[in-house]
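From the methods appendix. Each design record in this collection lists the tokenized structure first, followed by the designed amino acid sequence. Records were kept in a plain field format so they could be parsed without special tools. The example shown here is representative of the layout used throughout.

RECORD:
FOLD TOKENS (377 positions):
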């Protein structure tokens, strides 16, 4: 009997130093993580960073070349997929095209030994179809369904065996924007209703941020940072995370002075800019290469004659481009000595300033707290 960890009651999935190497390729390279019971967890990262491989190791389709994978406190290394309390919805979901909706969903139940009675199967399929809001679709053929409906059948098929953990590999990649948003809301509601643990793989940061309790950002088979949406957005550990999550302006420089809570960076033209360290960052050494990251919504933009007060940086700039986005307006300005800066003006500030047009002379600025001093990696 494998050893159970102390907190096995609260943790559904745990990786301890997990690697999956294919010869020279380090698909997953020394990952530690734990996913608390009943939470919505996401793996987020660019193509090829090891997301699917991580998920397949939870499902049992892949075995680690080093380390241990635990489900509900017990090691599952070597346990075949069908003996694990998990179910997976694949990156390219595959329904049985020759079966109708009912038979597609009942498939998993019919594979069970002992096989449930016919009435029980009918009841469970009906229940699960209601859950994904497809009640009454039992006799439809797969080709008679929309992409979103097919996706929900794939979900129902994974849910019918009541897994402890549901694994979802880019389940919404094939859907258009509107359908995607609807499915995201449905998935979240579903997760709350059934209370099981969801592990989602996505390369869409908006999707991960809006749906997950906890997100694990990966790069080259490793975890760069794990945390909640707010922490990743406001307290990125380095430039990679700040760049991957949301939009940022980056100013490159070297550390001229450093303290416990922040640093001063010297930019290429010799000017210095102060910023704060994020709560997750390690303070940098003098002369280290670093950058200042400023979120566009924290950049103020005002008429040249009326610079905003209380700013650590105030730079003359010229408006290059303006994009009206409805709830906000995005400006690209050329700022003296700083290069191109993106500023996001809220509707209220647009109403107050009257807005700006390409060619206008403006002043951009930000408070010191908005400037994050980040290491490159
Ligand atoms: N069976 C295999 N043999 C060799 N290399 C593999 C194998 N499976 C995956 N890899 C490699 O491991 C790395 C991680 O692959 P993985 O499928 O986990 O990426 P991913 O993050 O899911 O990417 P995507 O977003 O494109 O789906 C990639 O470089 C991939 O080429
Ligand atoms: Mg993948």
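DESIGN:
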């Amino acid at each position: 009997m494998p050893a159970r960890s102390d907190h096995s009651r609260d943790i559904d999935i745990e990786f301890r130093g997990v690697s999956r190497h294919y010869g020279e390729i380090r698909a997953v390279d020394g990952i530690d993580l734990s996913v608390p019971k009943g939470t919505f967890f996401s793996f987020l990262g660019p193509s090829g960073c090891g997301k699917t491989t991580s998920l397949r190791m939870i499902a049992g389709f892949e075995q680690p070349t080093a380390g241990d994978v635990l489900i509900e406190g017990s090691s599952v290394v070597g346990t075949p997929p069908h003996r694990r309390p998990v179910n997976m919805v694949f990156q390219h979901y595959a329904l049985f095209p020759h079966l109708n909706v009912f038979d597609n969903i009942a498939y998993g139940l019919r594979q069970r030994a002992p096989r449930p009675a016919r009435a029980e199967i009918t009841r469970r399929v009906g229940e699960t179809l209601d859950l994904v809001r497809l009640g009454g679709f039992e006799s439809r053929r797969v080709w008679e369904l929309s992409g979103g409906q097919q996706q929900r059948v794939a979900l129902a098929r994974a849910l019918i065996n009541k897994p402890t953990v549901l694994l979802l590999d880019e389940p919404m990649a094939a859907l258009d924007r509107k359908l995607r948003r609807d499915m995201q809301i449905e998935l979240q509601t579903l997760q709350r209703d059934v209370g099981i643990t969801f592990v989602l793989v996505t390369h869409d940061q908006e999707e991960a941020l809006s749906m997950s309790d906890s997100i694990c950002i990966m790069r080259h088979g490793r975890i760069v940072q794990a945390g909640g949406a707010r922490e990743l957005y406001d307290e990125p550990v380095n430039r990679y995370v700040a760049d991957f999550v949301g939009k940022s302006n980056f100013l490159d420089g070297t550390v001229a002075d450093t303290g416990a809570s922040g640093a001063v960076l010297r930019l290429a033209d010799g000017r210095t800019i102060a910023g704060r360290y994020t709560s997750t960052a390690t303070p940098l050494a003098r002369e280290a290469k670093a950058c200042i990251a400023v979120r566009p919504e924290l950049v103020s933009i005002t008429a040249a004659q009326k610079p905003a007060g209380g700013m650590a940086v105030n730079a003359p700039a010229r408006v290059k481009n303006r994009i009206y986005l409805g709830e906000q307006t995005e400006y690209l300005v050329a700022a003296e000595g700083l290069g191109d800066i993106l500023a996001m003006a809220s509707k209220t500030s647009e109403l107050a300033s009257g807005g700006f047009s390409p060619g206008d002379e403006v002043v951009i600025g930000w408070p010191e707290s908005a400037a994050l001093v980040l290491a490159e990696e």
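APPENDIX NOTE: The two ends are 41 Å apart (CA to CA).
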